[in-house]
Amino acid sequence: DGEGFAPQADTALVRNIAPLADIFVNDAFAAAHRCQPSLVGFVEALPMATGLVMERELRKLGGAIADGPAPRIALLGGSKAADSVAIAHHFLSQGVDEVLTGGVVANLFLLAGGVDIGAPSTAFIRDHVPGWEQVVADAAALRKEFGDRLVVPLDVAVSDGGLRHGLPVSELPTKHPVHDIGLETLVTYLQRIEGAGTVIANGPMGVFENPEFAAGTREIFTAMANSDALTVVGGGESAMAFTQMGLADRVNHVSTGGGACIAFMSGRMMPVLEALRDSKRRFDEGGYNK
């Protein structure tokens, strides 16, 4: 808001605790997208450093996006479609070679490409994606800007009375909701993972909580676990899925952040990281000398 962190510093918490300490260590990556006094207020009075968890998150996430071994691919799925559009833009702008989509994210990008995905899946986007019309427009612009680097499914799996039924995208629309990527898409994505140097995953490929539609997510995440590539997993739904499938200890990094991980991967300003930069500047300029 242009005031720096003075409002957060001018609180009883900071005024009472800061005189008792020599340095403030922030290890709360999962809250790094927030701006509470306990997170950023001490920077006005104390040198600020990262803890080991924060350092690992920044090195693993940032390194995978910007400097991971090539080719670098990202898998974006789940239901947080608006966030994933922003993440896709940031990834592709930072040189990630391809973004492969699944879940509601894929449905939205298909819709943005002029595909009629059917009433149930369109209604889900309309009802669950805030500002959905603008998000679809942003996704359409992204497809135009990055072309084939943004990959959408070739086929899908729909729920027909609760049972899985495969359907090529060319045969859409359908009266049944799309709940997973299809077999041809799965094979294509597995081939991309096999040839990748870096794989970043954020969000499942479908409704993995339902065994009937878990195949896409399970096979993709298992391929990541078996890969020799640098493998990084976003927090939230992805971390939960990897843990439930017993794969979390077989990838290089699983983020502890949900919203913070999304903010970082989409390139948004994060108050805690800004506070760390501010602290370094103050320290270099001798601003903490008493």
Automatic annotation (TrEMBL):
Entry keyword annotation includes Transferase: yes
Domain of life (superkingdom): Archaea
GO cellular component: cytosol
Broadest EC class assigned to this enzyme: transferase
E.C. number: 2.7.2.3
GO molecular function, one term: phosphoglycerate kinase activity
Catalysed reaction, written as an equation: (2R)-3-phosphoglycerate + ATP = (2R)-3-phospho-glyceroyl phosphate + ADP
Matching SUPFAM superfamilies: Phosphoglycerate kinase (SSF53748)
Gene Ontology biological process terms in this record: gluconeogenesis; glycolytic process
UniProtKB keywords: ATP-binding, Kinase, Nucleotide-binding, Transferase
UniProt family annotation: Belongs to the phosphoglycerate kinase family.
PANTHER family in alphabetical order: PHOSPHOGLYCERATE KINASE, PHOSPHOGLYCERATE KINASE 1, CHLOROPLASTIC-RELATED
Name of the protein in question: Phosphoglycerate kinase
Source organism of the structure: uncultured marine group II/III euryarchaeote KM3_205_C10
Gene that encodes the chain: PGK
